[in-house]
Amino acid sequence: MKTEDNLKKEKNISIGKTTYRNFPMVPRVVFGKGSFSQLGDILLPKRKNSEAPFIFLIDDFFENHMLALQIPLLFNDEIIFISAEEEPKTEQVDAIVARINEKYDEKPSGIVGIGGGTLLDLAKAVSILLNNKGTAKDYQGWDLVHKPALYHVGIPTISGTGAEVSRTTVLLGPERKLGINSDYTTYDQVILDPDLTKTVPKDQWFYTGMDCFIHCIESLNGTYINAFSKSYGEKALELCKEVFLEDIPESESRDRLMMASWHGGMSIAYSQVGIAHAMSYGLSYLLGVKHGLGNCLVFQHLQEFYPEGVKLFDQMLEKHNIQLPKGVCSNLTQDDFDIMVHVALGMEALWENALGPQWKTIMTPERLQALYEKI
Amino acid sequence: MKTEDNLKKEKNISIGKTTYRNFPMVPRVVFGKGSFSQLGDILLPKRKNSEAPFIFLIDDFFENHMLALQIPLLFNDEIIFISAEEEPKTEQVDAIVARINEKYDEKPSGIVGIGGGTLLDLAKAVSILLNNKGTAKDYQGWDLVHKPALYHVGIPTISGTGAEVSRTTVLLGPERKLGINSDYTTYDQVILDPDLTKTVPKDQWFYTGMDCFIHCIESLNGTYINAFSKSYGEKALELCKEVFLEDIPESESRDRLMMASWHGGMSIAYSQVGIAHAMSYGLSYLLGVKHGLGNCLVFQHLQEFYPEGVKLFDQMLEKHNIQLPKGVCSNLTQDDFDIMVHVALGMEALWENALGPQWKTIMTPERLQALYEKI
């Protein structure tokens, strides 16, 4: 995949005039405490026949949890529990798709992803690969998917990634961590039930919420921003501040963080993330650091680029008594740094958004390595 | 149509547990100055064949305007210019549908509505009636449309109504002013080009912008509100305040008002409008007062219900030197008042949202008439 070409597509710039992305929105959404119980009714008209199952991909955190008992199984529907300990991988997608194709004579009626960003991204990718030939890595990039995905439903159980509303599914492939970014990636249906986020462990809650906070800071301070993305980003940022800096009742806080994640995801429509995400991709690729935590590890050192944002971030860390791991990069070799720097600098659109078209003169490999060394 | 039944559907309350509306969002949106020029490329893959035209319903304000020359006509496509002087009517929808059915052997490829709320509502209704038997009035109400509408594209040229994003099309019928409120009403595609709103006359700009401002005040102060609708309503309200009370550059102001309208429309997903809209419906029904102006005429007298909102509204009137018509109801007969009161009180969900379940004890016909007499 040519990165130059990619950048053009990402910005949708054609020669001589600006064209704007025709952004796919989630066409159906339910919001409300307890709305998860409507899943059965929502799936019913989408069932092709009794031989075409719904496959539920669920975070294995819920394996012995009430939620697993509430899945509206019918006929030969199947639950596949999946660990979210690691970032989602292209080969994992291929394995799930192969298993489904082998087991069932009929193509499934649809895929339901239940969990955080990892599960939501896996479910998107599986639904694409069930309707498109080849392997997941073939589709990492911009608009490489040419056939609609299988009907897919996303149900977040933690808030912040925006995966429930975005047109991408970010996967760790053999060569890169990169999204399958296409019009067919977006969910056909989302259920936003804030009660499902009751069980989130506190550190996860914080890191994943910070994913939203950080991508709002990056998109609002980026050069790509326009009024559409700005309005979503500002609302998401405001909600993050309420959730992480004010003292609001827990139930209200869950509601607002779920909406922050939603609007934060939408704010990327005509913008991009920036330095923290680019560097975090490098950390994930080399060390398998999870995305939310990776963003936090990087963002704490970006005062010179996002002064206001980092100040707020420090207040949030303090208020919630979060201790970020230290010395994460202290034992790395020069080869390791080279790999991370290479992966991070490959995210050209993110750097251009953050630093403008002359970004290469600003962010040299040496400067980037020095930032990594602080982590 | 039974109003009780209607109310239940509107709130989606079933016995014993709350169910939440599965809200249809516009599945595709382009935002950007000059994005109107992408219309031809967007329609191309939706053309069924050369005999199946696109029908463009356009506000006749644009009849001798550059915009009319930029319509990407192909094959037997047709432009129908329509006056937006009056509120859209069910019989008008039926006439347009009959004309299209008579003229073409094939069903059109789709309908494109270009204009303000009137044109956007007409285009939605025409696209429904081209795929559903009977007449427009048969579908006024909740979820009475059972077959998908023809592919339809909405392009607003004035900001505020939220018609570009809502799941309703409000029509003046022989018996009532009421929406065709269904999952199939929502546009399949919207193009948000703020440059198209450059030509709006100042009073129209104000009245239509106030439609957005007023429905945000009504939904945010209503009893139906939840965190989803609240986050959209708050953002829309904030944008309205910036546009109508701050001094921002015109181009920026057009961008923000277009986004205010968009978010304002979305805020109705899990909420409702309130007293101003209910009373404005009465004014429209009896006197044909246009919706935006009608809302303003009513809202100025609603201090006791929306104190903060009316205070802001007064500041906006003053800042933009807007003189609202006076004595609109001064020559009405008792029969006239009875009709308006009857129409307004018929909007049960709006009253319940505004005043709670006991609204009938609060808003008596006498009290309502006294409010109308001030206008």
Automatic annotation (TrEMBL), chains A, B:
Residue ranges of every copy of the Fe-containing alcohol dehydrogenase-like C-terminal domain listed in the record: 207-308
CDD domains documented for this protein: Fe-ADH_KdnB-like
Record GO terms (molecular function): alcohol dehydrogenase (NAD+) activity; metal ion binding
Record's signal peptide: none
Occurrences of domain Alcohol dehydrogenase iron-type/glycerol dehydrogenase GldA (ranges): 28-194
Annotated keywords: Oxidoreductase
InterPro entries hit by this protein: ADH_Fe/GldA, ADH_Fe_C, Alcohol_dehydrogenase_Fe
Domain of life: Bacteria
PANTHER family per the UniProt record, alphabetical: 3-DEOXY-ALPHA-D-MANNO-OCTULOSONATE 8-OXIDASE, ALCOHOL DEHYDROGENASE
Name the record gives this protein: Iron-containing alcohol dehydrogenase
